[in-house]
Design brief:
With 322 residues, the protein is an alpha+beta fold. The chain has two domains: 114 residues, Metalloenzyme, LuxS/M16 peptidase-like (Cytochrome Bc1 Complex, Chain A, domain 1, 2-Layer Sandwich), CATH 3.30.830.10; 177 residues, Metalloenzyme, LuxS/M16 peptidase-like (Cytochrome Bc1 Complex, Chain A, domain 1), CATH 3.30.830. Helix content is 50%, strand content 11%. It contains 13 helices and five strands. It has a five-stranded mixed β-sheet with strand order 1-5-2-4-3, with helices on both faces. Helix 7 crosses helix 13, helix 8 packs antiparallel against helix 9 and helix 10 packs antiparallel against helix 12. The relative contact order is 0.14.
């Protein structure tokens, strides 16, 4: 859960006061809970009517094998309906405590001033006695079909990825960009531009404390599905042998440029600070990230792909007409 505000710098004291009131003195009125449940239930319906979102969540639920990481953030209709003042308050008291909280700020703010405001408005926050434990997921690679009345078949094909602080995480970022990170990627060029098998195709990564996933998403006509799956698998095999120096230079520049541009947004900077503290308990400056990306060689990537893409450790999920 993340509470954040973006504001002009002179409003920071007022915003910190407001955030402290929200976090430390929540009311959880039954009337407000009832209204919010209605909003979330409508959001769940909207998500169920969005094929790509539904497919992503179904894939994560399946590959994580019932682990909490595979559960939808919105929850389910029955769990949302079960919320009331009593159990919401109990959840808040159990989990919302300073030892489970990270505070960060980015932008026109001095560190000393921020610390001063945190102490002023959150210094009296009573420490709780519960710290959530972590359990690693057990990955499941069985293929799944979910029949749903849609015009296309939506698919995810993927495997176990990397934890946030894994030493190969920058190799995964570069490999993801090569495979399906842009319109110039291998998958987009081969699947869409050359063969016309789908309109959109991309590869994605998700990283957590001690685990992660890598997967390819696409949607196509039912009749084209076998060829689409075959071509995607072929591209995952080709990358083990086929990365040129020229391409690697271009892709590394793309990845580095993406990092630099994202850091122009103060919310992105704040989010990166929190993630690095939470997952790694240390901060790597932007120059350090650029160095890690730059030192990657094509032999590193091809060897990494050999370890990542193993035929019997790939999960395929399809949603749509079966």
């Amino acid at each position: 859960t993340c509470f954040y505000v973006k504001m002009v710098d002179d409003k920071l004291p007022e915003v910190m006061k407001l955030l402290s009131e929200m976090l430390l003195k929540p009311a959880f009125l039954d009337s407000e809970i009832a209204k919010e449940k209605g909003v979330v239930l409508e959001e769940i319906k909207m998500y169920l009517d969005t094929p790509d979102e539904f497919t992503f969540d179904a894939f994560l639920k399946g590959i994580y094998g019932g682990h909490a990481l595979g559960k939808p953030i919105l929850g389910y209709e029955n769990t949302v309906n079960a919320f009331n003042n009593k159990n919401t308050t109990a959840y808040y008291k159990k989990y919302f405590a300073p030892q489970n909280t990270i505070m960060a700020a980015a932008g026109n703010i001095k560190q000393e001033k921020f610390y001063e405001l945190v102490e002023k408005y959150f210094g009296g926050w009573e420490k709780g006695n519960f710290t959530p434990g972590l359990t690693s997921p057990g990955f499941v690679f069985e293929h799944e079909k979910i029949e749903k009345k849609l015009e296309q078949v939506h698919l995810c094909l993927g495997t176990e990825g990397l934890a946030f602080k894994h030493e190969d995480r920058y190799k995964l970022l570069v490999m993801n960009e090569i495979l399906g990170g842009s319109m110039s990627s291998h998958l987009f060029q081969e699947v869409r531009e050359k063969r016309g098998l789908c309109y959109a195709i991309s590869s994605l990564t998700e990283s957590h404390t001690d685990s992660g996933v890598f997967f390819v998403y696409a949607a196509t006509d039912k009749e084209k599905l076998p060829e689409l799956v075959s071509v995607i698998k072929d591209e995952l095999e080709k990358i083990k042998l086929n990365i040129t120096d020229k391409e690697l230079v271009r892709i590394k520049q793309q990845v580095k440029s993406g990092y630099i541009i994202s850091m122009e947004n103060s919310v992105n900077r704040m989010s990166r600070l929190i993630k690095q503290k939470y997952y790694d308990d240390k901060f790597l400056e932007l120059d350090g990230i650029m160095e890690e990306i730059e030192k990657i060689k094509k032999e590193d990537l091809m060897g990494f792909a050999e370890k990542l893409f193993v035929a019997n450790r790939m999960k395929l999920l399809t949603v749509g007409p079966c």
